[in-house]
């Protein structure tokens, strides 16, 4: 991936993280922290379901296919999120992502773990 494209993609992801942070702050001020967290959790979960819908074709027995499809769809390829396949067999698929621009942006903004 060209360096400029990678840099721009990471900047866009970090900007999205900061938008989420601002949304939480606004909702929290209006509705309280618990309600803000519940609403954002629900919205992000729903988006995750929609984004992962195409991966459902692998359910329930094709974990190797799921792994291949997931890795092919990782934004920016494997450079940005640095996925590591810890286990992929007939019973379980386990991956660890070693990078996340959203989490990096929140850390840079001074948010606690």
Question: Secondary-structure blueprint of this entry?
Answer:
Elements: H1 3-31, H2 33-52, H3 63-73, H4 78-81, E1 83-88, E2 93-97, H5 101-108
Antiparallel strand pairs: 1-2
Notes on the structure:
By secondary structure, the chain is mostly helical. 64% of the residues lie in helices and 10% in strands. The protein has a two-stranded antiparallel ribbon with strand order 1-2. β1 (83-88) and β2 (93-97) form a beta hairpin. α1 packs across α2 and α1 packs across α5 (101-108). The longest helix has 29 residues, at 3-31. The two termini are 30 Å apart.
- Can you summarize the main beta sheet? 2 strands, antiparallel
| Estimated radius of gyration | 17 Å
What would the principal axes of the Cα set say about the shape? Answer: globular
Question: How many strands appear in the DSSP assignment?
Answer: 2
Total helical elements: 5
| N- and C-termini, Cα separation | 30 Å
Briefly characterize the structure.
The chain has 113 residues and is mainly α. 64% of the residues lie in helices and 10% in strands.
Keywords for this structure?
globular; mainly alpha; 5 helices; 113 residues; two-stranded antiparallel sheet
């Amino acid at each position: 991936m060209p360096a400029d494209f990678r840099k721009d993609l990471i900047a866009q992801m970090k900007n999205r993280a900061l938008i989420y942070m601002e949304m939480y702050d606004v909702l929290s001020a209006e509705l309280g922290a618990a309600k803000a967290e519940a609403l954002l959790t629900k919205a992000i979960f729903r988006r995750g379901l929609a984004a992962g819908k195409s991966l459902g074709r692998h359910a329930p027995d094709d974990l190797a296919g799921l792994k291949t499809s997931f890795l092919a769809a990782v934004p920016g390829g494997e450079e940005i999120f640095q996925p590591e396949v810890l286990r992929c067999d007939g019973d379980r698929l386990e991956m660890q992502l070693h990078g996340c621009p959203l989490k990096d942006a929140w850390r840079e903004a001074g948010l606690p773990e």
